[in-house]
Amino acid sequence: MPMKSSQLSQQLGEALLEQGWKLTCAESCTGGGIAAAVTDIAGSSQWFDRGFVTYSNQAKQDMLGVASETLECHGAVSEQTVREMVTGALSRSGAQVGVAVSGIAGPGGGTDEKPVGTVCIAWQVEGGEPVVRTEHFSGDRHSVREQTVLCALQGLLDAVGQH
Fold it and tell me: How many domains is the chain partitioned into structurally?
């Protein structure tokens, strides 16, 4: 049976507390879903610093320092963009670990190159290089967003557990 976001968030909180770390997230397609999942956990203020919901390209530039050239050359849904998003979130927060997501949740907006369900995710621990992946989730808008939150949380748990 797959893990629920509440279980993953609880485990993540415990792992972050153990490390003495705080979390930040930079979200586009999930619209704050990752932040909502972690703040559903009582006591998360001890380990969750802040979240950035940067749905527009302008917000990605203004709030996270994503380069306009990156967005023009690669698009919002790209490994290059989420790499800059997670790095920007870490540098603009008091957190030691971060995650960034940008994707096409649907039902519209997909292309042949980037179909609906394409989501780019980046995880980074302070002082390290971002780990970046592109996922291809299936289902409707809600399902794609839910799968993105679960994948982001699992990746965070893996990143924290490796330190």
Answer: 1
